[in-house]
Amino acid sequence: MILEQYLHKTDVEIDLTSGRLKGQTVSLQKRSIADLKNVFADEQARLAMPQESLAYEVQLYLPVPEGIEGGLFFGNTTIYPIKIGNEYMMTKGHFHAKADRNEYYLGIKGEGYLLLMNEKRECWVEQMKQGSLHFIGANLAHRVINTGSDPLTFLASWPSDAGHNYEAIQQHGFSVRIIEQDGQPFIVKV
Ligand code: S6P
Ligand code: ZN
User: What is the Cα–Cα distance from 163 to 68, expressed in whole angstroms?
Assistant: First the structure.
């Protein structure tokens, strides 16, 4: 039997150098400066930036409907090296709507930090760089901060019924911020 008769083409390929997903079923979600209201401490600095500038973008491979139990999603995120006041560009950050749903992040390019926060608002960070693997456990809010001077790209995989709870972070934020001081990243309590 020739193998080709059994061969199915996969939907998506990943360029491991750039982290880009390639495939017809991949969708793109863009976040511009205008989408990041109240994410940074200095809202005036955010408003002074070109509002249409791309802050970060997410490629999504969602092979099953969103919300279905048992499926897995895959994506990448690229965060551009833009400063807002003394803060670095970062994702909005979220808990999962089903808060016990876990996730993996894998660093591909660039440098930064994964900021994690539990329900007691205790925070810690993990350094992200090429090859760093991050297990985001249950009930943890997660945000990525690009502290480098190049775009930061990471891959992610999460359950299809995880969903996103942005409201808790939108209202109360994280209990720490990473800021630039004398050209170095520092962590400050808020
Ligand atoms: C989904 C996963 C990522 C983020 C993406 C953007 O659970 O954690 O795909 O959605 O990195 O971050 P945010 O906080 O704007 O959704
Ligand atoms: Zn997530």
Answer: 10
Closest residue by CA, ligand 1 atom 6 = 91
Q: Element (H or E) spanning 43, and its range? A: helix 43-47
Please report which ligand is nearest the Cα atom of 159. 1
The neighbouring-strand residues paired with 180 are 185
Q: Which residue among 27, 30, 40, 91 is best mutated to probe the pocket of ligand 1, counting the most ligand atoms within 8 A of its Cβ?
A: 91
What is the pTM assigned to this prediction? Answer: 0.97
* Spatial separation of the C-alpha atoms in residues 57 and 63, rounded to whole Å: 19
Q: How confident is the prediction along the chain (190 residues), in pLDDT tens digits per residue?
A: 799 999 999 999 999 999 999 999 999 999 999 999 999 999 999 999 999 999 999 999 999 999 999 999 999 999 999 999 999 999 999 999 999 999 999 999 999 999 999 999 999 999 999 999 999 999 999 999 999 999 999 999 999 999 999 999 999 999 999 999 999 999 999 9
Cβ atoms 73, 93 nearer than 8 A: no
| Burial class of residue 90, CB neighbours in 10 A (0-12, 13-18, 19+) | buried
